[in-house]
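In this section we walk through a basic example: taking a raw amino acid sequence and producing a predicted 3D structure, encoded as discrete structure tokens. The instruction is simple. Fold the sequence below.
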Amino acid sequence: MKKGITTHLKRYSPVTMTNALVNFKKICSLPLVRLVSLEASLEAEKKKGLFRLNHWRFSRKAKCLTVVAIVAVLLLSAFEFFPKQNVDRDNVVPQNGDNSTATPSPTAAANEDNGSSSNLTQWISELTGSKEQTSGSSWVGSPGLIQSAQTINSTVWMEVAANAWAYFQLGVGVNPITGLPYAGGLTFEAFTDWDLGVYIQAVIDAQELNLTGTGGAWGSSARIDKVLTFLENRPLNNATNYPWQFYDATTGKEAYSVSQEATVDITDTGRLFVALSNLINFNSSLAPQIITIVGRCNYTALVPGIESDSLTSVNIYSYYVYSGFASFWPNQLSNAPINILNNILSAGNVTTYGNVSLPKGQISCVPLLCSVFELDNNNSQLMGLMNQVYLAHEAYYNATRQYVAFGEGNGFSTSAYLDEWVVLPNGDTWKITASGSSSYLGINQSNYIIYNYVAFGFLSLYNTMFARNTVIYLEQRLPDPSGGYAEGADNSGNVVSMVGSNTNGLILDAALYYIQNNP
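The resulting token sequence is shown next.
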């Protein structure tokens, strides 16, 4: 880990590393347990599948159910001769990847027919009082919100938004005394400036969706006031006069045990600046207070390095983060984001799964979705890049029949924070690294984590059968979202059940985007 007068960056590109302002890599917000080796984790997962000897005794009820099941299987076999469409398959054909502005041709989710055999399977399940088990460790539950919807419309998205906003309720994802957010619910009661930005944006989204009012002890105005008061008075690192990496949401004080000895984290800061800029646009009366907060630290000293890095960077994280800085230093940095986007789109291309072309940049869905949903300068280049990344996911599924929604977040039996890269500057595609590392992890396709917020993001933007089926696959396996949406699952049915601010903040973003663009 590098130290210096600049910062520890969350995402970094090997190509621009020597000129970059910082090591651009997001630090795990949830270091709950010690990192164990991935090899050991996978070995442990294998052991879970070992058979155990059992002595079987059949009751009268069990015998009856067995007979019913045999008859049903025979009926099911007969139905196999009839055409059907499975919920795990779609008819969307990827567009030609050579056209960066091409739009996908969505298959209307409202017309989906699960087929006779699928309905019969559900009937057997109801009759026997059981649930279908996946090949992994989770159970397939009853139809959820998206699967049950006849059409995906603003009414459905309001229910999605309400589920995501449930995470940000007092005692769930927000401390009821300080009003500060938890990064990972009660399992991790600390937060970074990134998490604080997520929370500010979530409050803005909830207000615009009428999920909360402005008044009252915990209306949007009171929530924002508590956050801004914290930012005005929070303790800074005495050695650097910049913020600590982590703060304790229960006290508002620095969290020494998990903070890194870095000068400043530019990625976290830039994400906070995006939210603060959006807050000014949302309520201009807060501008003087926010300008004072930004001026507490000498962030101006970072501007020349950001400007220089933007000339060579091909990292989509830089595009998003530097957009936050450009909001407050427009004279020096107004061209920085577009410089980075131009660098990415002119870096050469690589083709994935036949006909989808991707630029050789450092592309992750998290900053890409955040840029589309939260920035107010969504030009055709950005939307074209978003479209190609989506089409690459669709093409991946059509070729492999493995669901994919590459993002970042927590893994399974390890505390490692994982980054799933759709493409990298060297032309490699579909690679996974642990946070702080450039080494690829040897995770097979069935164990790629399908991140919930990416799936919902695709559904919001494109409303295709592939996007809907990906969300359905997850909602059948993840816990009920009454307290917010869980992180994701893999294609073997293993679940990452942690519920946190990043997932629910981005799903709120996705809901607002859909509703505003589909009146």
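Looking at the output, two observations stand out. Residues 1-103, 105-138 have pLDDT under 50 and may be disordered. Residues 78 and 117 are 9 Å apart (CA to CA). In the next section we compare this with other chains.
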